[in-house]
Structures are given as C-alpha cells and as structure tokens.
Design goal:
Two copies of one chain form a homodimer.
Chain A: H1 10-27, E1 31-34, H2 37-44, E2 56-59, E3 66-70, H3 71-80, E4 88-91, H4 103-113, E5 120-123, H5 132-141, E6 146-149, H6 153-157, H7 163-186, H8 193-205, E7 246-256, E8 259-269, H9 274-292, H10 300-313, E9 324-325, E10 354-357, E11 361-362, E12 367-368, E13 372-375, E14 382-383, E15 392-394
Parallel strand pairs in A: 1-5, 3-4, 5-6, 8-15
Antiparallel strand pairs in A: 1-2, 2-3, 7-8, 9-10, 10-13, 11-12, 13-14
Helix pairs in contact in A: 4-5, 7-8, 9-10
Chain lengths: 395, 395
C-alpha cells in the first residue's frame, strides 16, 4: 500500500474534530452519524465515488471517527482517510440494494458493540444520502437511542476556511479561468455544444505545467442553456450547434482536490439585444453594490439586499437567492447548504467564509449569468477568479 | 419557446404510465411520489441537473403526472417534459435549503388541493432523493394519508427496454468503444491521469460525424485506480503520471440521451504479472459461462453462479454481486437498483432486460475489471459494445 498522502495535516483534521465535537455538545448529542460525502471527506479525508450505496462517518463521544461503508469500499477508506484500520467498518455485500436487509441494520449492531446504541444520536435528516428508510432502520434497531436532527451541523463547521482550503480554492480559480478562456475561444455559431463541453472538461482537467496541477470533477456538470432555454437554470447540453443571435450562459466550476471555484459568464454570439445589454448593466452595477457589502461583520442578507436594490432600480426583480457558501463538495451540489444570500438570512459574515455570489437572472424567455466566487475579508471580498466581468460578445 | 423534442413518442410515455399505474394497483397505492430523477425522466421526459433540491413527479389516480420542483426549475420542466403547464408546480425559492420550511410542506398543501391528501400514498423510502426530513414533513402535513414504501416500484417498470431505449443504448455502446480506443491510444508510463480523463471525456462527448451524435455525461465519473489502489473499486483519479509495471482498470460508460452503456477494461503497462494473467484467464472463462446463462427464462443468480463457479475453479472468490440492470440514469449511479446478479436473486430474466455484467475483482492489493453490458435475448445475450475482451497490454 502506498504512503498515504492526505490533503490536510493531521493537525487540521484534529481541529475539525474538536470543532465538530463542540457543536455536538451545544446541540446536545453524544454521537453524530454523518452521511454527507463532503462532511465525511472534511472529517476524515475519505474520497471515493461510493455514495451511491449507504455509508457514513460516525463521530462518537471520544476517539477518532469511524468510517462505515460497503465492504469493497473499505479499501478506499484505508487509502484515502487518516483513520486506523480498526476505525473502518465494511458491511457485507448482500446488504447492497437489498429488499431484505438495510446497511443501517448492520450499522446499528456495530454502534451497539461500541456502546453507543443508547446515546443521543444526531442524524442528517435532510441530506440526500440519509434516506427515509435509513432513518427507519436506525429507529427500529436502536430503540433506546434518542435521535435528533443534526442536518448541516458539520456543514456549518466548514463555513470559515483554513489557509490550506483557501489555497486549494485559489488553485481551482486558476482552473476556472482557463475553462472560460477555452469557452470564449471555441464558442461560435455552428460549433456543437457537446464539443464545447469536451473543451470545457479538457480545460478543467488537464495538467497545467505552470500551475503544477491537474483538475478534478465538478459537483455539477457544465450548464450551458442558450436562447429561450436559458430561462431554465439547470439544463445541461445537447449535441446541436450554437446559433448566432443567441445568448448562452456557462455555469461551471474549476475544482482542485474537491474544492470548487464556481464562476458563470454569458456569451452572446452576434450583436447583443437590448435586453442583454440592459441585464449586463443592471447586474454589473448590482454586483458592485453586493461586493461592497461582502465584508466581515455584515450579514448574508446585506449582500442580497444591496444587489436586489440596484436590480429593482433597473426594473428587474429576482425572486431567488443570490448566493451560497462553497468549498469541498461532491455531487449533486457545490453549495454547502448552510447560509443563503437572501433577505432574511441574518448570519454574520466572517473572514475567510467563501461564497458563490450567484447573480444569475432566469426570466420568462432568456437567462443571464455573470457571477463571482468570493472570500470574505475584513474590509471587502477577494474575488477568487479573474475573468473579465462583462457580457462576452463574439460578433 | 422552441418546439419540444421528446426522446420518446407520446405513446411510449403513455404506456409507461399505464404500466406504472398497474404496479401501483398491485401495490395498493392510489398516488405515488417519485423522487428518483431517473424515474422522473422515464415517466415525463424531465431532464435537468436540479436534483440537488427537493423535487418529484406525482402520479395520481388519473390524468397526467404532476411535476413538482423549485420555481426556477419549472421552466426546465416546461421545456423537457411532455406535461401541460397546469401539471407543473413550482415552489417558492424561500423553501430552498431553509431550516424553517420544507418543500414537502408545500407539496402536501398542493396534494390536498388535488384531493389526494387522504389517499394511500407510495413513497420511495430508500431513494437518495427522499430524505428522512422529506418523509417527516409529508407525515406531519398529511396525517390522513396512508403511506407505504414504493421504493423501486417505478424502477422495476423500467427493467424491460423498448426498441427505442435499446437503440439509445446501442448508440451509447458506440461511444464507449471510442472511449476505450482513446484510453488504449494515450495510456503510457508518464502520462498523467488527469490528462487521460480529459481524453476520456473528449471521446465520450464530442460529436461523431459517422454516428451523427454527441455524448452525454455519465452518472458516475471515470474510475481508474492503478496498482494497489485498484483494490478499491471507487477511487477516481489524481494528477500523477501512470507508472510502468502497474495495472489500471478503467470503469467508464458511454452515454446517449441519459442511456448508459458501461464497460470496463484493464490496461497493464509493461509485462503483466502472473497475477494479472491468471485473473484474465479466470475472468474470461467465467464470463463465457456467465454469458451463456444470460438468456430469457433463466434467473439472475444463474449468471452469477455460472461465473462464480469458474472463478472458484481458478481459486478466486468474489464476495460481491456481479452485475445490475442499466439504462436511463442520473448521478450517483448508473445501475437501476432492482435486481442484482448474485446468488439468491431469483428474478426471471426476460428478453430486452439490460445488465452491466460487472465481473470486476478487487483483491487486497490489486484490482481487475473486464466487463460487458448486455441485452438479454431468447437464446443468449447481445453484448452491446465491441471492445476486445482481454487484458490490454502496452509493453
């Protein structure tokens, strides 16, 4: 087995565990079952595309976390996490997608072995990877446990980034710059979208000699709807040619060691319509206002209100949130699912929080995205990537 | 809005609905809440990367299905599904990742409007996209409903593929052939894995003039662990160079219109070790036996038993399942999560069922994958892709 190369120091993992246990204490839980792969990776280093079967990391009252997953993936846990073999539990393969037995039946027995079956146990109730059936199994097999909702408990500990995390996100920013350069270079009427996506992946993945890094997969595939389809924010692509006279937004992220730097730009092929020029003006002015509010001590909603006020002045109403925290992520989402940049979110911004300032507009028959990923500073934000902030026109 | 181009005829969608309602009747449910994006797409055509927020398709006692999702994604439903606007319900954005309100609160009210709140309602209890919190919300707000587990009810209706579906999977097979050709061409000592993954995406996505198609994203990113790392089946890649004297398996899929053709091959750089040569011999002989059993009327376990018997003769014991159904898929899994090719699965094979015959071996310090995707026929299987079935050696 090769020497383990962790993405963070043992000390950083230890601090994360301490932070998590402090939050557990405040939440009144002795044990937390962490099903979110991003949280699992953040706590232990575990990295693998195994989240299509049940798995979790369990943080108990003391000691290192316990990794729990499919038997064949235990080898992956041994190779990518800092955990000792004794802290890695694999379940037999006949628990996989079985109608007779559930992996959480097996976990319940192991938690009983550890003496944790009658504890106060936090579970991530509203996480993709914690199904209703998983919860039912735990409740059935650990009737003496007291379960409570710990959704996002670990996600919140991830909000303020360490220097090493910021470094990875800056590298991801270099990657996304390269991706947008490739888009602008290749995008033209007649060029097929599937080919453009291949170019985007190429720019996002290939080793860069100058940077000394290659890229990782994004938690969301490239989104690049054109024309009226751009009214829908989450369409992917097809194999049809790009057309003159249409706007296309490109919502993509550079990724390094699972850390994301999302960034969107809109490309118009041909002479932009007044609608696009007006949108550009409103969004750029609004972004300036929002970025000015993006400093430690302000609230999440301050950024959104600043942006929305300018939009309104331009006669545009945006009825969805305008950003979310980013960092370490696995599909299906590169957001951290804690704060939102929207009116009513009174979370206080802290230095080294990181957000995708998602200033996209999705109207009835058009869409427009110019966004920035930012690091909150004492006096204002650092924009992670440097891609010309304007409507990109190819005439 | 552009003319809707559905991937299947209205008639095919109608048949799917009829099949689903028949299964609902047998299961004793009046209404089914379908959270799985693959099932949502199969029933309505809906296609978008929006499954990171709560959404579903509801099939009621009569009429077309109802699409339910985030307000901004309703535009996507209008553009990709056959549903009338009246059957598309968007929820307000302040339900997104909120700690105060849950999208299923909103859905409950809509189901009450439709007169379905006191019905027998099936839910996909063990689906990624149906969290414990989603179920708790439904139970709280529809206390007169009778809930029951309908996990995989729709997935089972997808098991036997239509001619159009088989056609898409054959196209996906052409794509995966191209991907493996690219791997074999590029793979050599010193070549970086991230660059190889860029090549794989390029071959998987770019428009092919001969075929007249471009590719789609796979539900699982390329898996390509080398050497001892190949003991872990679900590691992805890094930016390090490939090494001489190591085996690497490539588990990838070609995808067309969300239909998958997975296929794995193993490449050895340099002179293969005896372990790899022995594995090749055992797996190829075992696959022949398994493929012979892959015909209508036989059972799922017959394929597995045939394969395992040969492996055992060669002194190899595989303790995990050896295949699963495939077709239309979204991340995180290109399997259909119904049958498994393993001892004990007594599902009767039918013509036009499709499987990934996943004959991978993951041992203590090495791994080996040569697999086939197959269509069950009356007298034997069709292997979808045509990639030389052997250990690929580059000396």
């Amino acid at each position: 087995m090769p020497a383990l190369s962790l993405n963070f120091s043992q000390d950083e993992y230890r601090q994360r565990l301490v932070k998590t246990r402090r939050a557990m204490e405040i939440a009144g839980v002795d044990v937390i079952i962490v099903s979110d792969p991003s949280n699992m990776a953040w706590l232990t280093g575990y990295d693998g595309w195994s989240f299509y079967v049940h798995q979790c990391v369990v943080v108990g009252p003391d000691g290192d976390p316990v990794w729990f997953g499919r038997g064949q993936d235990a080898n992956g846990a041994k190779r990518t996490s800092y955990l000792a073999d004794a802290n890695i539990i694999g379940y037999p393969d006949n628990y996989v997608q079985s109608t007779e037995r559930h992996p959480m039946d097996y976990l319940s027995a192991r938690l009983a072995d550890l003496g944790w079956a009658d504890k106060r146990i936090g579970v991530e109730m509203d996480n993709y990877w914690f199904s209703a059936a998983a919860f039912a199994s735990l409740q059935k097999h650990m009737s003496n446990a007291q379960f409570s909702d710990a959704t996002a408990l670990v996600n919140w500990q991830r909000a303020v980034k360490s220097p090493q995390e910021i470094d990875y996100m800056r590298k991801a920013a270099r990657v996304v710059e390269r991706m947008h350069a490739a888009i602008f270079e290749k995008c033209e009427p007649g060029y097929r979208k599937c080919d453009l996506v291949a170019d985007i992946y190429s720019a996002g993945l290939r080793y860069d000699e100058t940077l000394g890094i290659g890229g990782d997969y994004p938690a969301i595939v490239p989104l690049l709807p054109s024309g009226t389809d751009a009214a829908a924010p989450h369409l992917t692509w097809d194999d049809q040619p790009m057309k003159a006279g249409e706007g296309t937004f490109f919502e993509i992220a550079g990724v390094y060691k699972r850390y994301h730097c999302p960034l969107s730009r809109t490309v118009f092929l041909g002479k932009p319509t007044q609608v696009f020029l007006d949108a550009e003006k409103a969004v750029l002015e609004g972004m300036e206002a929002g970025l000015e509010a993006a400093k430690a001590g302000n609230l999440c909603e301050d950024i959104a209100n600043a942006f929305f006020t300018v939009l309104k002045k331009h006669g545009i109403s945006k009825d969805n949130r305008t950003g979310y925290p980013i960092g370490l992520s696995y599909p299906p989402d590169w957001g951290e699912r804690t704060m939102s940049l929207r009116p009513g979110d009174k979370t206080v911004l802290e230095e080294n929080m990181t957000f995708h300032f998602m200033t996209g507009l999705w109207m009835d028959d058009w869409g427009f995205e110019i966004t920035e990923s930012i690091v909150i500073g004492a006096n204002g934000p650092e924009c992670l990537a440097d891609v010309p902030r304007r409507l990109h026109v190819k005439d």
